[in-house]
Every structure is written in structure tokens, then in C-alpha cells.
Amino acid sequence: MSEVQNVVELKLAMDTVWLTAAAALVFFMQAGFALLESGMSRAKNSVNVIMKNYTDMCFGSIAFWFLGYGLMFGTNHTGWLGMDSFMLTDAEPMDFSLLFFQTMFAATAATIVSGAMAERTRYPAYIVASIVVMGLIYPVYGSWVWGSAVSGEGWLAALGFIDFAGSTVVHSIGGWCALAGAIVLGPRLGRYGPGGELRKIAGHSLPLLALGGFILWLGWFGFNGGSTLEADASIGPIVLNTHLAAAAGVVGAILTMMVFRQPLLVTHTVNGSIGGLVAITAGCATMEPAFALATGLIAGVIVVGGTGFLNFIRVDDVVGAVPVHGFCGVWGTLAAGIFYVSNPFSSTIVMVQFLGVMAAFLWAFPLALLTFWLISRTIGLRSDSVAEQRGLDFSEHYESGYPDFHTIQMHAGTEAPRGGRDRA
Amino acid sequence: MSEVQNVVELKLAMDTVWLTAAAALVFFMQAGFALLESGMSRAKNSVNVIMKNYTDMCFGSIAFWFLGYGLMFGTNHTGWLGMDSFMLTDAEPMDFSLLFFQTMFAATAATIVSGAMAERTRYPAYIVASIVVMGLIYPVYGSWVWGSAVSGEGWLAALGFIDFAGSTVVHSIGGWCALAGAIVLGPRLGRYGPGGELRKIAGHSLPLLALGGFILWLGWFGFNGGSTLEADASIGPIVLNTHLAAAAGVVGAILTMMVFRQPLLVTHTVNGSIGGLVAITAGCATMEPAFALATGLIAGVIVVGGTGFLNFIRVDDVVGAVPVHGFCGVWGTLAAGIFYVSNPFSSTIVMVQFLGVMAAFLWAFPLALLTFWLISRTIGLRSDSVAEQRGLDFSEHYESGYPDFHTIQMHAGTEAPRGGRDRA
Amino acid sequence: MSEVQNVVELKLAMDTVWLTAAAALVFFMQAGFALLESGMSRAKNSVNVIMKNYTDMCFGSIAFWFLGYGLMFGTNHTGWLGMDSFMLTDAEPMDFSLLFFQTMFAATAATIVSGAMAERTRYPAYIVASIVVMGLIYPVYGSWVWGSAVSGEGWLAALGFIDFAGSTVVHSIGGWCALAGAIVLGPRLGRYGPGGELRKIAGHSLPLLALGGFILWLGWFGFNGGSTLEADASIGPIVLNTHLAAAAGVVGAILTMMVFRQPLLVTHTVNGSIGGLVAITAGCATMEPAFALATGLIAGVIVVGGTGFLNFIRVDDVVGAVPVHGFCGVWGTLAAGIFYVSNPFSSTIVMVQFLGVMAAFLWAFPLALLTFWLISRTIGLRSDSVAEQRGLDFSEHYESGYPDFHTIQMHAGTEAPRGGRDRA
Predict the structure, then answer these.
(1) Using CA atoms, how far apart are residues B89 and A289, in angstroms rounded to an integer?
(2) Cβ contacts (< 8 Å) between B233 and chain C: which residues?
(3) What is the pLDDT of residues C136-170, one digit of tens each?
(4) What are the residues facing C192 on neighbouring strands?
(5) At C229, is the secondary structure helix, strand, or coil?
(6) Where do the domains of chain A lie, and which CATH numbers do they carry?
(7) Could you tell me if B251 and B293 are in contact, meaning their C-beta atoms sit under 8 angstroms apart?
(8) Contacting residues of B for A25, CB less than 8 Å apart
(9) Contact A43 B95 (CB under 8 A)
(10) Is the pLDDT of residue B310 over 50?
């Protein structure tokens, strides 16, 4: 194919191949989020949910190239912000590989938000918010932890904060923005009854939801494995831990449902795996497999419990983005300290982890609240109630997701039919 | 990215990258199986089928880490069983890469079973069975053939048995377990009429079925290509053979349907490709492309004929798992001997291949029969008939796969509407 | 895993790994096309569309191995045609890797055609046409541009024609064949009213359409990144440009819809991304990121405008294959000249690009017209009108894509319900 290159060039080519393959897998997570979120929404909003996932990444990728990458990975003199590398042009090939990989990470943080806000958020408002997340909220926090990857060093990195692939940097940040959005929006019409009681609103396609889960799981091998930023034998234990934690997350969610004598919902099951993946993301490179299993198992419990907690405080998070990405991100970041390979159960390490977790919340949540509040005061955040009842597919896109099928206009609070059950 | 490493480290890093990418593709086959099997089932069981596929891998992956991997790849003094490497911890990174890759293989063997048993198997019973397959049935046979990959040597390997990526080790083992399960369960309600005549029960989403087929085909490039266990130029002919055999499998299935003047069913077509892939799995590394085409073509014929044969003996295999994985696994293993590159049509080689095929059946089928019989006598294997008629989504998970759509409660034996056809 | 090899072998192994991974991604684009095209068709044709996508690749891959690869990459003494390497057997492993990768490219060119001709083309007629495209039309043009990759040199390559990964070689060729097919077929029944006015025929599953778009976008990282034909650091800027152009294509399509005060259709949005990807394919290796953004942005405009233009001249292209692959292929090939990195805006380069674009049209369009005309005069190209109204799933395959669901027999010209809209 070409002249033989020397070993330096070989390594560079190999790093490029791995970063590209891993970034492609992380890109594919966008499809996973789109299907998972669309599948958990009603048919009348299926197109709108997917449009948001498809296009937030488009506007956001350009915003990240324009601004975000420089804020996050530019030369970081203060530890609080990068200051160059905006609109990267005319750089080394490897710099472009890094930008490509990091763009996919930024897109992940942004798209987490859409699920919590599904079925009632205006399309243009959502797009503006996702540009703010990818261009500003995510990269600034990211510079505190990962800025050192290129030059300078973030202040959290300097303290020894461990977040290998972004339980906090990507997932908690996304989760807190999602929480802010869901709070500013308020719940969907009829989600809670007059006495505040929860009414079930079933997602329209659980097979698509599950396919979304499989795709996210697949993508995570690139997410965590690619965070080595180079081809290296250490990828092996990283992806093994990733897989075991996801499997254990499912087991944890299923055991929790069994203990509370709930039916074994596929929604909780899939979210259990994603919760396990979120949790192992911080510590996958610095944990023994048995601890990865424990990290995932507890994440599965948190997913089921956290979903119940959010409904208890009447925050309507359509897909469970806050428990899965926010809460499990916190747990995973702490677990990365608790189970740190060469020095497990060190309170010093755990304190730094806790500090990083708090910093993420204090940075992202108020700023996201402000962003959504400003949007709601200007261009308008929430669809009007006629549009919400009719479905956003019609009101925003004048399309139907499934025009050839008789669909049931789901009224909020419509329950699945009751009847006998056949469980062991 | 890092200091330049020496050539040994480079090779190790490259092997890791390839094993990881290949394992990710094999992982994705789980989504392929889930969609293919759910698509071939009725809407009322669509969630249950996917839950089984999503979670068998979770429980099974942990079982394989705990027990199976050691049985299969641990030090093998006798040739019949590995005896260490259980709960692998604190090992070389490459060992974790291997475990990661092999876990995905074990999950494949287990998940094959679910399709044959769809629409009438209780969820907890199925999960117990899949743990037995991944933790015991699959790895013990595997140790006879592939145990030598790490240390010691399996007795079939010692005889020169050729099964490069597992036509027998993975697919026939899975197929025979599926056959045992379908026999112990018995057919779905109404699958065969009072006179034993076959009644068509159509799958609820053929587009999902076809997507499952595409994903399986994609994953197979990792399945066969990754079985080199290292980055090597020999991957090229392996994946080419894989692709050509799959294509020829489709051509074989279509020609068979044309010869018998049947309509060109997408179900048989997709199964034809999977049959071709199963068949080439044993010999993909030791066959010329023209022979790969022949192997696939015959597999396509076997898929259509084998599906008819199973119905003739009234074994209700919902997705055709037994003909596709069992029968085509046998054919492919024999073909690997018949078309062996340096010595084709040698009766000595074919005899050894036949011995390995027989050993797989004699090990897996009775043991799986026993497992399913024990389950049926204890926790119960088959759903009660009210649950089966209502659908397992409701009875086991209290969910509906498609709550926003008017679905037709398919009565067993409901035929597609008859009428004129427009075929050349 | 193996003895350490020398640097030459290492490079070869690494090239193989990258080519294999990239080819697997390109293969997966077949699933993307199948879903996108099936999602844009009515439910009654959903199986037929997918069958065509699933099987054109099968017959065509064998035809490409048998004939096409040799025509395209065989020794090319005249610059107009390769003359050996047919039925490749007993070659170097790397040759098989190349054949594997190039087979996926040929399959892409062929499958583009199916979308434009959906919902009214007989299955066997389509298969014959796709064998001609993969075995003859595509590889002969390809030999003019890429023949030099192995030995000899194509006449367009000799002139300096730039088409790195095939905006013209793959996509325009496919687009012109699609245009010829749509013209020979004529529009679907009722697509245009008595006065020639356009009637909307909505696709049956927009979530599947969007998933198809995500998969195509993912596959394109292999399509463009793999066209290096080796592991190399230059893959980084190539895939970054690919991603930015796709994102900009979406932005371009959305801005166009906003300017013309149209609803924000997901169909145009997804096609905008594919148009951006098609356009950047020629110049992705020789363009700065800012120019990649411009290339994609304009492609998004072309997609929306070109779709309107085709309807204006009453060519019924069901999925927009002609504007997306044909028109954006032309634009992208010119853009590769206009934005050529070391010498942008050179009229000499642009002239050669224009020549290559014209040559593609003059070769592919008349030959495809002739092929489709011959098919229509012999075995018959178009389904009879009873079959078309009933749906090709029933008439050709005797299957229903969604037998458990009440579907609406869409009459041509059925509009989505009208009503108030809620856009900013």
C-alpha cells in the first residue's frame, strides 16, 4: 500500500485508526439515544424526538469546532479555561483526530438533555440550548478535568480528580442540564393527577427502545476504550470492565424490581445497563473486574430507585436521563475513587472525587437553569398545550411518524390494560 | 500521544485494537438476534423476546467470567476441561482482551437458543437455561477444540479438528440446545392443526427482522475476522470468504424458493444469509473464495429445506435457529474439511470433522434436554396457556411493545389474506 | 499472541485491520439504505424495498468478484478498462482485503438505484439491473479514475481528476442510473394529479428513515476514511471533514426550509446530511475544515432544491436519490477542485473536475437507460397496476411487513391531515 514507515509513524497511524474507530462508535451512540428516547415517547412525538437528536449534533458539532474545542483543549494558563485552538485549521493530522473524537463526546453530553425534555419542548428552543451545552457548559467544565490532555492543566486535574472517560465530565454534566430543563419546563400535561399521583405514559415502541440500548452499549466500547487516546494494550481491561458493569447494571435493576415485586420492565432493564455504563466510565481504567461488577450492580439499583425519586418530587423526566446520567454519574465518579486499583477505599481520593462531582453540579445546573429560563422568556421553551396534545410531529414538522398505521391518540394517564399476571 | 514503544509493544497494542473492535462487532450481533427474533414473533411477544436477548447476555457474561472462561481456556491437562483462570483478576491486559472477546462468543451461543423457544417460554426459566449454556455446556465443548489457544490442548484439537471460528463450537452447540428446548417445550398453541398440518404464524415486523439480518452479517466480520486473535493480513481473505458465503447463502435460498415455486420470502432470504455465515465460520481461514461461494450456496439450500423438515417432524422453531445454526453448522464444519485449502477432498480430514460434529451433538443435545427437563419439573419452563394467548409481554412484563397502535390479536393459524399473485 | 513481526509485516497487518473495519462500516451502509428507503415507502411495500436492498448486494457481490473487480482494478493498458484479476483466487492476502473493501463500494453504487425506483419495480427486473450496475457500469467508469490504484492508470486519473472516495465514481454513477430507472418506469400511480400537480405520498416509518440516516453517516467514516487504503494519520482530517460536511448539510437543508417557510421535514433533514456526505466524498482528503463546512452547507441547499426540481419535471424519485447522490455528487466533485487545498479556485483544476463529471453522466445515464429499456421490453420492469395498488409485498413475496397491525391502505395522493401549526 505504501512505503514502510518508521516506528514513530506506525504508532501514529495506529493511534489514528483506533481514535477514528472509537469516535465512530461514539457517534453511533447518537442513534442509540434517538431510538431510546423516541421509543420511550408517544408515537405522536416520535419524529420530533428524533429530529432533535439528529440535529442537535449538527448545530452543536459546528459550535464545538467554532468555540467549544478551544475552550476545552486550548492552552489553559489559569486551569479554568482554554484560550486558543478555535476553528482548528491547518494543524497536525493527529490534532484533527482528537477534535473528531472530542466532538462526539460533546455531542453525547448535549443529546442527553433531549430525553428528559421530550414531548413538550419547542424544536428551535431545544436547538439553541444544545448549542449552549456543546459550545459552553460542557467544554468549560471539561477544561478543568481534561484540559491537560493537550497543554496546561485544569484545576481539578491538578488535584488528582479521576474521571477517565467522563462519568462526570460528560454524563453528570448532561444529566444536570437535563434536570434543569425538566424543572423549567414542568411535567407533561396529565403526567401527574390532581392529587399529584403519577400516571403512566407508555413509550410507543419498546423494540426501538431496546435497539437504542444495544447501540449505546456498543458505542460505549468506543467511549471508554477510545479514552486512552491511543492504541494500547490497556484497552482490553477497560472494555472488559465496561461490559461487566453494563451487565451488572441490568442484574441490579432486575433484582431491584424483583425485590419490590414490580413487573420486570424492559424500560428499567435497558436503563439499568446504561446506568452501569455511565457509572463505570470514570473508573474503567483503574478498577479490577470484580469492582466493576459492584459498580454496575449498584448503578442498576440507583436507576430504579432514582426514577422513583424523581417522580416522587414530580420532576417529569421522560426517559430517566437524570437518574441514569446524573445520579449514576455521581456514583461512578465516587466509585472510581473508592475502588481505585492501587489504593482502594482511600478517603483522600474519595474527597477529591466528591469535590469534582460537586463542582460539576454547581457549574452546570445553575447555568442550565439560567439558559432555559432565558429561552423561555424570549423565544419560548414549551410548546403550547394544543400542540402538546396533538403531538409535536404535527405542530413542528407537519409529519407523522407512522402515517400508514391506525394510532391511538394516547390521553395522558392512559394506563395499560389491567389483568392477571403470570410471574414466578 | 505517548512515547514511541518498541515493536513488541506495537504489535500488542495493534492486536488489542483489533480484538476490541472485533469483539464490539460480535457484541452487536446480540442486537441482531434480538431484532431478528422479535421481528419473527408476534407483536404481543415482542418485548419478551427482546428482554430475553438483552438479559441472557448479562447474566451469562457474569457466569462466563465466573466459571465458563476458566473451563474453556484454563490450563487443560486432560484435554477435556480447563481448570484455572476463573474470575480473572490481576492478569496481563491481553488476557482481559481475550476474555472480552470470548465472552461475546459465549453470549452468541446462548442467545441462539432464545429464538427457537420464543413466544411460549417463561422468562426466569429461560435465564436459568442461558446461564447453564454460557457457564457450562458451551465452554466445556469449547475446551476440546479451542482450549489450546492458551495452554494445554483439547482432545479434538489434538486430532486436527478444524473449526476456525466456531461453526460447531458456537453455532451447532447453540443449535442443538435450541432443538432440545423446542422439543421439551412443544409447539406454540395452534401451530399445528388437528391433523398435524402446519399453520402460518407471521412475524410482526419484517423490517426489524431484516435489520437484524444486516446487523448479524456485519457482526460476523468481527466474529470470523477476530478469530485470528491478532492483527494480521490473513484477516483479508477471511472476511472476503465470509461475505461471499453470506451472499451465496441468499442466492441459494432464493434459487431453492424459485425451484419449488414458493414466494420469495424475506424470512428465508435473511436466514439464507445467516446460514451461509454459519457455514463458512469453520473454514473461512482455509478455503479459496470459490469454495466459500459453494459452501454458502449449499447452506442457503439447507436453510429452506431444513425449515421444512423441522415442520414435517412438528418441531416448532420460531425463527429457524436449528436449521440455520445446527444444520448449517454441521455442513460448514464438513465443508471446512472437504474444501481444505492445501488438501481438498481428503477423506481423513473429513472423518475428523465428522467426529467433531458428532461429539458436539452427543455432548450438547442430551445435556440441554436434561437441563430443560429439570427446569420444566422445578420452576416451570412453559408459560400457561392463558399467558401464551394473551402474550408474554403482558403476562411477564406488564408492558406492551406498541401501546399507541391498534394491533390485531393474532389467533394461531391466522393466514395472510389469499389472492392473486404477481410473480414472473 | 504471535511472534513479533518486522515493521513491514506490522504495517501490512495494520492496513488490513483498518481496511477490514472500514469495509465493515461501508457494508453497514446497506442497512442504512434499506431502512431509509423502506421508511420513505408505504407499509405495503416495506418488505419489497428491503428485499431489494438485501439481495442486490448478494447477486452483485458475486458479479463484482466474477467480473467487475477485474474490469476496475485489473491491469489497465489502455486507461479505459482493466483486463485481469477476474474471479480472484490464490492472491496475496492484501489483494483480498482490497477486493473486500471495493465490493462494498460497488454495492453502494448499485443500491442507490433501488430507492428512486421503489414501490413500482418488479423484483427480478431490479436484480438484473443491479447486476449490470455492479458488474459493468460502475467498474468501467471506476477504472478510468481509480484503476491506477493497482496497476496501469485510468485516463481521468492521468488528467489529474480528483475524486478521493467517489462523489462521482460511486454516488453520481449511482444517481444517474437511478435517474434513468425512474424515467423509464414513470411515476407511481397517482403521484401527480390530472393537472400534473404533486401529491404527497408519505413514508410509512420516519423513525426507521432516521435510523437509516444515522447508519449511513456512521458508514461514511469507513467510506471516506477507508479510501486511504492504508492505516495513516491522514484519516483524522478526512473523517473530521466528513462529519462537518454532514452536519453542515443538515444546517443547509434546515435553513433552506426556513427561508421558504416550509415545515422542518425530517425527510429533507436526513437527506441534507446524506447530501453533505456525498459532496465531501471527493475532496475530504484535500480540503480545510472550513471549506468542508461550505461544501456540506451548499449540498444541503441542493438537496431541498433538487427534490423540488425533480418534482417540477415530474420524475418520481421516491427517496430523493437523484438530488442526494447525483446532484450533490456533481457539486462535491466540483467543490473538490474549487477548494483544493494547495491551490484553491484554480480554473484548470475545476475544468478537469467538470470533465470527469460529464464523462460519468455520458457513460452511465445512456447505458442505464438502455439497460432499463431492454429489461422493460423483455422480462418486464414495472409491476402491473393491480400489484402496485395492492403493494409489492403481497404480490411479490406474499408477506406483510406488519401483519399484526391495522394499516391504512394509503391511496395515492392521500394527504396528512391539515390543521394549525405551531412554529416560531
Answers:
(1) 6
(2) 9, 12-13, 15-16, 93-94, 97
(3) 999 999 999 997 555 668 999 999 999 999 999 99
(4) C198
(5) coil
(6) 25-386 (1.10.3430.10)
(7) no
(8) 24
(9) no
(10) yes
Q: Which of residues 246-275 of B touch C (CB under 8 A)?
A: 246-248, 250-251, 254, 263-267, 269-270, 273
Identify which of C234, C312, C333, C268 has the alpha carbon closest to the alpha carbon of residue C36.
C268
Is the Cβ of B406 closer than 8 Å to some Cβ of chain C? Answer: yes
Q: Which residues contact A51 (CB under 8 A, 6 or more apart)?
A: A123, A396, A397, C210, C264, C266, C269
Distance from CA of A196 to the nearest CA of B (A): 23
Distance between CA A53 and CA A212 in Å, rounded? 12
Say if residues A274 and A249 touch (Cβ distance below 8 Å): yes
Q: Which residues between 195 and 234 in chain C have a beta carbon less than 8 angstroms from any beta carbon of chain B?
A: 205, 208
pTM here is: 0.96
Give A-chain residues touching B12 at CB under 8 angstroms: 233
d(CA C60, CA C104): 10
Confidence of residue B93 (pLDDT cuts 50, 70, 90): very high
**Which three cell numbers mark A189?**
400535561
Give chain C positions within 8 Å (CB) of B25. 24
Instruction: Check pLDDT > 90 for residue A386.
Output: yes
Residues in chain B: 424
Is the pLDDT at A140 greater than 50, yes or no? yes
Q: Any CB–CB contact under 8 A between A424 and chain B?
A: yes
Contact list in A for residue C265 (CB cut-off 8 A) is 397-399
Model confidence at C3: pLDDT above 90: no
Residue of C nearest to B293 (CA): C62
Contact C300, C327 (CB under 8 A): no
Q: Which cell is C6 given?
A: 518486522
Secondary structure of B377-395 in HEC code, one letter for each residue? HCCCCECCHHHHHHCHHHH
Asked if C384 is an interface residue toward chain A (Cβ–Cβ < 8 A), one would say: no
Averaged pLDDT, C341-363: 94
Q: Of B90, B390, B404, B405, which to mutate for an interface test with A (greatest number of A Cβ within 10 Å)? A: B404
CB–CB contact A403 C248 (8 Å) = no
Dist. CA A207–CA B399, nearest whole Å: 12
C163-219, pLDDT tens digit by residue? 999 999 999 999 999 999 999 999 999 999 988 899 999 999 999 999 999 999 999
| 3-state SS, one letter per residue, for A305-369 | HHHHHHHHCCCCCCCCHHHHHHHHHHHHHHHHHHCCCCCCCCHHHHHHHHHHHHHHHHHHHHHHH
How open is the CA angle C173-C174-C179, to the nearest 5 degrees? 100
Strand locations in B28-125 (E): none
Measured distance CA(C280)–CA(A84) in Å, rounded: 27
Distances (CA, A) of C353 to A268, C76, C224, C323: 54, 22, 19, 19
Q: Which residue does chain B place closest to C124, by CA atoms? A: B424
- DSSP letters along A143-207, please? HHHHGGGTSS--HHHHTT---SS-IIIIIIHHHHHHHHHHHHH-PPTTSB-TTS-B-----S-HH
Contact C53, B207 (CB under 8 A): no
Is the Cβ pair B403, A18 closer than 8 Å? no
Q: Which pLDDT band holds residue B150 (cuts at 50, 70, 90)? A: low
Q: Which three cell numbers stand for residue A345?
A: 477505599
Partners of C198 in the beta sheet?
Answer: C192
CA–CA gap between residue A88 and residue A85 (Å, rounded): 5
Q: List the 32-91 stretch of B: residues with Cβ below 8 A of A.
A: 34-35, 38, 46-47, 50-51, 54-55, 57-59, 61-62, 65, 87-90
Q: Which amino acid is at A265?
A: L
Q: Which residue type does C159 have?
A: L
